[in-house]
Amino acid sequence: MQGPTEEKRAKAAYNWLQLSPLLTVPTLFFIAASGFGYTAVEAICPTCSLEIAEALTAVTAVLGSALWHLFLLQYANYKGSEFVRKHGRQALGYAGVRTTVALIGAFFAAIGGTEVFSCLTVIVLIVLWATQSRIGLKQIKMELGLEETPPTSVDQKEETMYTPEQAREILRQILEDLQSGDDVTALLAIEKLAVFDRIDDDIFEKAILKELEIRAGEDDNADIRMDARIALDRLRGAGPLHQRDRHRHANSAARRPIAKRDCRADSSEPAKRGRNRNPASHRFHENAAVQQRSDPQSAGKTQFARQRAPEARVEALAALDTTANRTVADRSSATG
């Protein structure tokens, strides 16, 4: 995140560019009125034509007035911030465009051009003056997150298409920028990743995701951490390696419910068989419960019978385990 001082310095370059005509225009007319070109032509080439003297005067006036733009060098060479240097150089480039247009217009006007050409040059300079500073200031706001970009609908979004070679070159540059120590370069690299819905190259995918994980977890810049997390969440699972893992997990997850249903079915079968094995016993308990609710006196007898049931069962088994009963059982099995 750029500090307030860096933001002010970057904006100062464009503010100076916007106010510079207050100095360059008077200087231009002052040098042109001094007749420097005529004096120089008379001293160097007395036989030269008047058009050459006028052209030399115009070019000298434009170049002399453009010296005011050297004031922007303090921003273009600022050592404290890459952010300030970037916008200082851009403002200096804007000033160079203005100077070039003015030179061309002044030269052709001096050698016999029409007034229409001079008026056209003035109009172009006014348009450049009105738009260049605004563009630069808007870029600063967008880079600092002070101005949100308008949302783009899915239908209006145009996907940039790259050849495999172009994509690898862009990914290589993004990886180098992520590994750099400059915050602005890293933020711009993360922004460039937005044009990729997925990374098809396994090598670049692993390397870029690793750098994003490092940036998201260890970077001192809060903006870089946040943007890296967003990019990491978006790209994670989109590459071919992660898609294979996701399909494998999906298949295993689809098999788990079937296995659970089979286990529940297997475990429920013995219970069903146990309930169906002795329906008479089940009806006996139901009748006993109804009788207990209808006759409180019989409830005590039923409870006593339940307590006596284990002892009665033991006595019945002992009675069945007699010699006579075993003889009858053997004869029955032999007859069957």
In short:
By secondary structure, this protein is mostly helical. It contains 15 helices and no strands.
What do these coordinates show?
The protein has 15 helices and no strands. With 336 residues, the protein is mostly helical. It is elongated. 79% of the residues lie in helices and 0% in strands. Among the domains are: 140 residues, no CATH class; 75 residues, no CATH class.
Order of helices and strands: HHHHHHHHHHHHHHH
How is the main sheet built?
A: none
Protein structure class: mainly alpha
Q: Helix share of residues?
A: over 70%
How many extended strands? 0
Question: Distance between termini?
Answer: 98 Å
Rg, alpha carbons: 46 Å
- Low-confidence regions: 151-159, 239-247, 258-263, 269-285
Which strand-content bin applies to the residues?
under 5%
The number of helical elements comes to 15
Q: How would you sum up the global shape?
A: elongated
Q: Please, what is the average pLDDT? A: 72
Which SSEs are present, and which pair or pack?
Layout: H1 4-19, H2 21-33, H3 36-44, H4 50-66, H5 73-76, H6 82-110, H7 115-143, H8 164-179, H9 183-192, H10 202-218, H11 222-235, H12 240-277, H13 279-294, H14 296-320, H15 323-335
Which descriptors would you attach to this protein?
about 325 residues, mainly alpha, elongated
